[in-house]
Write a structure and sequence with these properties.
Blueprint lengths: L6 H5 L16 E2 L11 H9 L13 H11 L6 E4 L2 H12 L5 E6 L5 H8 L2 E6 L8 H6 L5 E7 L11 H10 L5 E5 L25 E6 L12 E5 L2 H9 L8 H10 L3 H23 L4 E2 L6 E5 L6 H14 L2 E2 L1 E2 L8 E5 L3 H14 L1
Parallel strand pairs: 1-11, 3-4, 3-5, 5-6, 6-7
Antiparallel strand pairs: 2-8, 7-8, 9-10, 10-13, 12-13
Length: 364
C-alpha cells in the first residue's frame, strides 16, 4: 500500500529544473538567467554580518526591506509584498485568489510556474498563444476574460521568449480588464528592457489601477538568486495582506533581507552591470544570427532562438542541447519551457557567450 496524496498533486506539473550545478567552474551556466556578476562586496558583507544572530528568527514584519523599497519607489510600505523569490508571491497569489470555478489567464509559452497556480487550486487555466513574434497577444488575452476570471498574468519581458511590450500597450490592456480582476505584471527582467524606459515607468500605473501588482525580484539584476528575494509593488494593500495570510511566517531569511536592503544602495553598480549585459546580449544575438538562426527581439538578460526546421524537431533539439552540455555549455531546451524547437540562452560573460556560439556552430 502506498501513501495516498491529494488529487491536486497529480495535476501540478513538475518544474523543469536546470541541470549541471555540480559540473564545476569550467561549465558555462547559461540555463537559468542568473547574473554572471557576483554581488558587490558590501552586499555580501551585509549578509555575513547578520549570521552571528541567526539563533533568532528574522524580523517577521520585514520592516527594513519594506522601508527601503518604499523609499526607492514611492509606494507605501504596507503595499509592498515580499517573498522567498517572486515565485513565492505568485504561488501565494494563486492560493489567495483561485479556487474551483475560477479562471486564470496567461500567455503561453511564459514562465513555467504559471501552470502551477491553476493546478494547485483547481481553477481553470486559459493559456493564450503568443503572436508570430513570440510576444503577448493582449487583444486575445482580453477576449478571454470572463466573469469567472480572478487573475491575469502578463510576463513583461516574457520568460522564456525574451520579448517585451511597451507600457502604452500594457496601459491599453489594463483599461479593458474589470477592476475586480487582479493583474500581475511580472517584471522580473524589467531593468534590462530598453522598450520600458526605466524601472520607475510602470510604477506610475499603480496610481490608476488598484488591481495591479508589479512583481519583481532581486535574483536577476541584483545578482542575489541564491538568497531568493522577490517583491511586489501593489496598487492596493489588500493583495499584500491576502498573500501573507496564506503563507508561513518568516518566509524571508535574515541574510536575504540584509543583502537586499544593501543591494538597493548600490544602483550605480546595478546600472553599470545592466549596460554590460545589454551590450553582451546584442553581441550574442549577432553571433547567433550569423549562424543563420532566428532570434526574438530580446529585452531581457537572455535570448530566445529557433533551431532550423527539421522533420524531427524534438530529436534535433535534444541532440543539440546534449551536444552543448558535452562541450561545457548549459542552456534550456525550448520543449521544457513550452516552445519545442527553440532554446533559451542566458547572457553570460564574453567568454561564455563566445563558447556557446562556437559550440552551437559546430553542432549545426
Amino acid at each position: 500500500m502506498t501513501i495516498e496524496f491529494a488529487e491536486r498533486i497529480r495535476r501540478i506539473p513538475v518544474y523543469p529544473v536546470a541541470a549541471g550545478y555540480d559540473l564545476g567552474a569550467e561549465v558555462a551556466m547559461l540555463a537559468s538567467n542568473e547574473s554572471p556578476f557576483a554581488p558587490v562586496p558590501a552586499v555580501a558583507e551585509a549578509a555575513q554580518r547578520v549570521l552571528t544572530g541567526v539563533n533568532r528568527y528574522p524580523d517577521p514584519s520585514y520592516a527594513a526591506l519594506r522601508r527601503a523599497l518604499s523609499d526607492r519607489y514611492g509606494i507605501p510600505a504596507d503595499r509592498i509584498a515580499l517573498g522567498n523569490g517572486s515565485c513565492d508571491i505568485l504561488l501565494a497569489a494563486g492560493e489567495a485568489l483561485l479556487e474551483p470555478g475560477a479562471e486564470v489567464v496567461y500567455a503561453w509559452p511564459a514562465f513555467s510556474v504559471y501552470p502551477h497556480l491553476a493546478a494547485a487550486s483547481g481553477a481553470r487555466a486559459i493559456e493564450v498563444p503568443l503572436d508570430g513574434e513570440d510576444r503577448h497577444d493582449l487583444d486575445a488575452m482580453a477576449a478571454e476574460i470572463t466573469v469567472a476570471t480572478r487573475l491575469v498574468l502578463v510576463c513583461n519581458p516574457n520568460n522564456p521568449t525574451s520579448t517585451a511590450l511597451g507600457l502604452d500597450e500594457i496601459e491599453a490592456f489594463l483599461e479593458r480588464v474589470p477592476r475586480h480582476v487582479c493583474v500581475i505584471l511580472d517584471e522580473a527582467y524589467c531593468e534590462f528592457a530598453l522598450v520600458l524606459g526605466d524601472p520607475f515607468a510602470s510604477v506610475e500605473l499603480l496610481r490608476r489601477w488598484p488591481n495591479l501588482v508589479l512583481l519583481r525580484t532581486f535574483s536577476k539584476v541584483y545578482g542575489l538568486a541564491g538568497l531568493r528575494v522577490g517583491y511586489g509593488l501593489c496598487g492596493s494593500g489588500d493583495f499584500r495582506t491576502a498573500v501573507d495570510q496564506v503563507r508561513q511566517p518568516f518566509y524571508l531569511g535574515a541574510a536575504a533581507q540584509a543583502a537586499a536592503v544593501e543591494a538597493l544602495a548600490h544602483q550605480d553598480a546595478v546600472e553599470e552591470r545592466v549596460a554590460r549585459t545589454i551590450a553582451a546580449r546584442i553581441e550574442l544575438e549577432t553571433g547567433v544570427r550569423e549562424l543563420g538562426l532566428w532570434t526574438a527581439e530580446s529585452e531581457a538578460n537572455f535570448i530566445w532562438l529557433r533551431l532550423p526546421d527539421s522533420d524531427d524537431a524534438a530529436e534535433q533539439e535534444a541532440r543539440i542541447v546534449k551536444g552543448l552540455a558535452e562541450r561545457g555549455v548549459l542552456v534550456r531546451a525550448g520543449a521544457a519551457l513550452g516552445g519545442a524547437g527553440a532554446m533559451r540562452v542566458t547572457v553570460g560573460t564574453e567568454a561564455e557567450n563566445a563558447k556557446f556560439v562556437t559550440a552551437l556552430g559546430e553542432l549545426l
